[in-house]
Queue: 4 jobs
Job 1
Amino acid sequence: MATSQKAPTSFWVALSAVFVIAADQWSKYWAVGALSDRSVDVFGTLRFHLTANTGFAFSTGQGLGPILGFVALVIVVVLWRMRSRFSSLVGTLALGFVLGGACGNLIDRALRTPGWGRGAVVDFIDLQFWPVFNVADMAIVVGVLLLSATMWIEQRRGMNGA
């Protein structure tokens, strides 16, 4: 039963991860080209403003790029191995969001100048009252929230015998 369940789960995790990676990398490509010499006000406090993040969340840990790259790679492997633990479509897609977001930022660390582990993550979505972030970061946050809700609901069902 685990084998038959694993194939569909793998497909949906991979599909949602690839979607996030593509959206993230395309948006970063756009941001680097369009925002290198200007910021764009969208509405309210939302603006697109290009920044480079060599640290991790909220630009903390500057200079720890090689360590962060390794940790991100380990997280990607662990997330992929967890895919068969989720049976609901929402949980499966959410895992793909987290995996895709982690891969999107890992790609930046690996491929952007000056190279592996030292590349900066491209951030450009600026609310002006929150640290600047990107599509990968949004996917990670949404994925973690959905995974948390899914696990909580599944645990509640298990406790109620449903």
Note: The radius of gyration is 17 Å.
Job 2
Amino acid sequence: MTLCVALLGGSFDPVHNGHVALATLFATLLEPDQLRILPAGSPWQKSGLQARDADRIAMLRLAFAGAAATHPVTLDLQEIERGTPTYTIDTLRSVRAELGPDASIVFLMGSDQLQQLDSWREWRQLFELAHIGVAARPGFSMADAALPAAVASELTMRRGSLAQLRNTPSGRAYLAETLDVDISATQIRAALQRGEKANSLISPVVLDYIQQHNLYEI
């Protein structure tokens, strides 16, 4: 069987239940040999991160501790260690060089990111390096009419099955309609700043960490 690695990148500022649900969904669907979590170092499309790198890493370890019991989970810190603006294309090139030409690499994202995929650097070249697995998110349609025309056209050519993603190196896209979690880190930070606990949005152990370290305060 082909080595399969699923990658979930993001700012994780903070990591929340939506991140874990997306990763768990594709870990269940694909049964990858490894699930890698890739915290961004300096995401070029965002104005800045509120939590320190060390805090985001600590929160990720706590949030994915449960998932690690059933799926092999690894934190990949290369984007933080790079120390420059984070571009997915660079990360995928690095992972492909590490794993070789035959491994299956599946880059995971929510449908909100899919709607702006054509704004990413060298976005079409992403498919030369990996498959893309997309999970539905309320309010962000994956229908062709809701996507930029170039993205919709690319996806039409590249739709693949889970078996194709699992057993071939790159070039396919799979849209999972079964995830229905509407959570954002912005929403969580706003709730915490209002003094709300956001228990339904974030893992209790992560929330405890945030409170103990006085993160996201006004």
Note: The chain is about 40% helix and 15% strand.
Job 3
Amino acid sequence: MCGRYTLTLDQEALQVALGVGGLVHPAPRYNIAPSQEVPAVVHQGANGEGVGPMGATLRWGLVPFWADDPSIGNRLINARSETAHEKPSFRNAFRRQRCLIPADGFYEWKKTAGGKRPFWIHLESKEPFTFAGLWERWSASDGDEVLETFTILTTEANEFLRPIHPRMPVILGPDHRERWLDPDTPGDELRQLLGSFPAGPLAAREVSTRVNSPTNDDPGCLESPEGPEDGLPLFQQAD
């Protein structure tokens, strides 16, 4: 799964890197957690205006349009890419409302005899990238509340990340982003885009357990742990 990620680039640099305007990102984020509002890229503005890739602000934790209770979003922070196109909670968004979630790293926790240890995974180049996501607009029955929310798609981990965790978020490279957002892309082609990201560009290292608490959102989350006696070796770029 993917339960936390980072986006430390400033707003202007992020817009230039992705070639998308309208991304609102006022401060570096070191521990983005579910239920928080974050920048996203949609095919048209989340307010229904305009065409082509545009910036939007969405809340993490997808609430299907048909949900009676928006708290369902707390359980829908991830969707399995292998089955999202057919699951009731995700199939409408898979057909009509796909998005990209900018990031420059994400966390996974490795199970060890001494407990779970967090690792920060990123591109070896430290460049930003995008997760494949799905988004929905939900309205309360009385019309007093409107939520625009998203989920991050996951897939099987590649050979580099498998020693840390069996799943990883779907990362879409620049060549695949436009096809993912395009509402006219056929379903079978969409599913072909959702495989594991190549291992070669990735790097990872163990980081502080400060990241375990979503109240911690500062550079300290990326600090290395204080040398445990049975410390795991740092993961380096895959050969």
Note: The first strand starts at residue 5 and ends at 7.
Job 4
Amino acid sequence: MAGMVAGTRMTGTTITDSDLLGLIWLASPALPVGGFSYSEGLEAAVDRGWVSNEETAARWLVEQLHLALSRSDLAVMAQAIAAWRASDEARIAQLNAWVLQTRESAELQQQTQQMGRSMVEWLKSVQPEQAARVREHPTYPVACALAVSATQAPVRQALLALAFGWAENMMQAAIKSIPLGQSAGQRILARLAREIPAAVDHALALGDDERQAFSPMLAILSAQHETQYSRLFRS
């Protein structure tokens, strides 16, 4: 343990204690960006009976991780971190526009814009020099990348942390909307944690022509959720 004080060894890459803590902070559900208020279509799936217990919830979220988050937001985050670090404003604008163009429902548009604004507001409090770099309202993946870019954390470790933060929020959405107990939620989170490294590696391997946000049933559920009779979540 004494040899780990200056840095933490993770998958062959050294990350400093301050950068590791910074990633934990960004991934925390306590970060005031509003992630807890969205289910990203999960509540609609519960309403229709497609997700009804621990097993179907875990399977749904694992598929969403690989088919939606990995191929879209995580890939954008990886590319946007590099763009922010290089001060490439044209590239940042391009990535931000792509995210907006691929949000297929009003709720999903609202989520990425609201969480992006909230991330910038948080940065104004803790990293004002980073917030001052913003030239247009960033979507959530681009705003997350801005926060990460202030650290020296390797991109892969940053994506692992942010994906786990997403998993925590989605697990909480599952146990509230189905509902499930805390133990079931922790088993779902453990299953997602096992899947996250592969999802991150896939995201890192994607180029501009390979990113995609093609998840039509998720978009349909999100649109239907807008008029759902009873709702706990904003998406």
Note: The domain at 41-221 is CATH 1.10.4190.10 (Urease accessory protein UreF).
